[in-house]
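Could you help me review a protein record that somebody else here produced? Here is the record exactly as it was handed to me:
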Amino acid sequence: MGSTLIDTSGADFSAPPVQVTFDGLLFDMDGTIIDSTAAVEKHWEAIGKEIGHSPEVILQTSHGRRTIDMLKELAPEKATWEYVQHMEGLLPKKYGDDAVEIPGARALLQDLIDRKKPWAIVTSGTKPLVSGWLDVLSLPHPQHLITAESVANGKPDPACYLLGRDRLELSSPGNAEVLVLEDAPAGIRAGKAAGCKVIGLVTSHTVEQVLEAGPDWVVRDLRSVRFVPAEGSKVTLEIRDALVLMN
């Protein structure tokens, strides 16, 4: 994520500012609100040794996916919620100093909270992992939290974002415009399949990988997404310094 510097030097992040209005926002967690790359690498190095798989191979395919889905493929005997919750719950406790917030995330979340706007976190992490990171970084806990345990199938299946829409009482794509903020191609695809608009962040994958997943806007991080005060329950955002998309 953010600490794994993504080279964007060849991309044109100079699209003119646009203002867009939504009924609610759904945030991914890792790579969107926080960057726990260094911690996750240490974590999977230990787990890889335990299950007999190279951590490098695991990391190539794990981002944006649930741990339990990875373990079903690599070590089925470990693919239980008890094991996953236990090991993910340890991650913030053991490697808390290795995580940072994504630039712009705290300010955007605080604006939503201060104005009582609808938002939720929709993540492939378990509840102990998400709660642990929010506590370590003193970030706000959402009223609505969709975690790995909440759905039968993880991203890119849209179930998690459909559930997020439902929790915000915005389940009808035809009558409610919902924005997903994501960094992982699997999550971007899940958001689009759930009938949402998607902002793709270039924090964990290359510009090309993010673009291939089909987001509506691409930005470097959340400093490019600014809350615009407006009356009513809807959320108006200004998106600036986005990638210039070629038609």
Observations:
- The two ends are 28 Å apart (CA to CA).
- The longest helix spans residues 37-51.
